[in-house]
């Protein structure tokens, strides 16, 4: 399949793994990227989410040469000021520091990054479309409808990614992750989320106590999921403003929350006391979605 | 914590990574182990399942020295003819060929392994407690009650492991995996299954067509899970002999099955067309379990 002339004109060949133009892809370290407001998106499905996102924008693409022709239609949606770097596999793998099986990477930025910390401007970023402070985020989520998903102490990238995928599947309004949960823009989390973390609004980094306190203030009804939950899921019906609160399998949820919130358990076979947290969330969200 | 004298007497120290007594743990290759009817169990929870299993028996344990004292009670349940090898971390990691974070490994065998292929003896292995041929397995599963879970073309170890964990959580009678699905005793699958693959009966290796054909002959009602399913999950009620059939996200299920079986879909938000297969299975099994 030939590459269209308009696409061919945009492509920048990279032959030297040391080329500074692909520095954003060098030895990809999630922590460093995310600290700068950036991240790496991998694969075509994730790229599609990135191109639809209002909060994130691609700053460049880095593709395996053999993949370019097949991506023609998709690449036509990449803004014209975004460079498209292309390399052969050995160069690409050497830059990234791992085998880039899919051959499709994009570096992207949060449109909010680079603003003064603390925000001298408006609290709602017009470009990003969602408020950046927790209170504003919660209020905006409450207005949208659909359950909110709240993660406390979820440090596993797979679990955080899977929670986004499941939240998106069942119409959640957004995801709030506390400061001890892993960042949803780590590469592996984005991959497991199948890119939904780029389109489903999220807030990351507030202390758990502040989240618990502000949930109710913003009109949410916290529903804590726990093997010790007082109500059976089968008895639950959805209601507006539900916030499904998830804790780690080891640590569980803050006692204050367990005392104050409605708590729910999923009934399981005798002798089994837990499910994967993202799977448990999916079971609850699926039930609330089909009961709505 | 001191080690009890009875345990101390059983411990065999390993100082040389080349020691032939720990050959089963050397550069662990799932494929080779499973071809011989063996596998490696990792971590204490998986070890507990192994010690409860009727089908599998440990042939040896290999532990990090620092873990031994804390495992005293558990190790007293290990049959007395099973050697307990102990090493310092550098030796253990060098033998295994990876960093054994948990410091707890066991090599185990299927009690059926080593019998003449084709079986000159009885088709039901008294030690193993379950029939080894597909027809017998399906009939036994049908008598037990609880849904059967059938996996076709599931090559991902995480997904297969998670399917076992979810099947066990919701009272499934067993799991059937076709020949193109990955073996549930690969180390990573056992870990994600949290050991349930050692206690929940399974049959692996029959061709998909034979499975589809024999499901009905054994009195099962196949229920194929697919985004194209004709019925909504919310309309479903459980019935005895249900066999939940799962296909890969890419390949889907055989057309013959989709035509003949009852088919069900999980309703999702617009624009989302799939869930992780193990998550989708959990949603269906949880509903059948709570509706039973």
UniProtKB/TrEMBL annotation, chains A, B:
GO terms for biological process: methylation. Coiled coil: none annotated. Keywords: Methyltransferase, Transferase. Residues 149-285 form the tRNA/rRNA methyltransferase SpoU type domain. CDD domains: SpoU-like_rRNA-MTase. Signal peptide: none annotated. Residues 123-133 have a biased composition (Basic and acidic residues). Residues 111-133 are annotated as: Disordered. It comes from the Bacteria. GO terms for molecular function: methyltransferase activity. This is RNA methyltransferase. It comes from Jiella sonneratiae.
């Amino acid at each position: 399949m030939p590459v269209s002339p308009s696409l061919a004109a945009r492509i920048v060949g990279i032959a030297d793994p040391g080329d500074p133009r692909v520095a954003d892809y060098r030895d990809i370290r999630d922590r460093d990227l995310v600290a700068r407001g950036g991240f790496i998106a991998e694969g075509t499905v994730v790229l599609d989410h990135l191109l639809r996102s209002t909060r994130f924008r691609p700053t460049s693409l880095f593709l395996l040469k053999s993949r370019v022709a097949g991506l023609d239609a998709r690449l036509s949606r990449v803004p014209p000021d975004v460079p498209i770097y292309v390399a052969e596999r050995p160069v690409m793998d050497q830059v990234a520091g791992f085998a880039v099986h899919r051959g499709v990477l994009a570096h992207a930025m949060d449109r909010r990054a680079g603003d003064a910390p603390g925000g001298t401007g408006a609290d709602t970023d017009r470009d990003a479309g969602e408020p950046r402070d927790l209170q504003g985020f919660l209020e905006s989520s409450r207005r949208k409808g659909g359950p909110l998903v709240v993660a406390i102490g979820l440090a596993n990238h797979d679990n955080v990614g899977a929670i986004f995928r499941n939240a998106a599947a069942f119409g959640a309004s957004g995801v709030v992750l506390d400061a001890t949960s892993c960042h949803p823009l780590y590469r592996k989390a984005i991959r497991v989320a199948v890119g939904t973390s780029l389109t489903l609004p999220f807030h990351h980094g507030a202390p758990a106590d502040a989240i618990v306190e502000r949930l109710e203030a913003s009109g949410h009804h916290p529903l804590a999921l726990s093997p010790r939950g007082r109500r059976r899921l089968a008895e639950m019906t959805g209601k507006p403003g539900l916030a499904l609160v998830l804790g780690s399998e080891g640590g569980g949820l803050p006692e204050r929350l367990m005392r104050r919130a409605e708590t729910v358990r999923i009934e399981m076979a005798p002798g089994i006391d837990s499910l994967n947290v993202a799977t448990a969330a999916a079971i609850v969200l699926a039930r609330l979605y089909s009961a709505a």
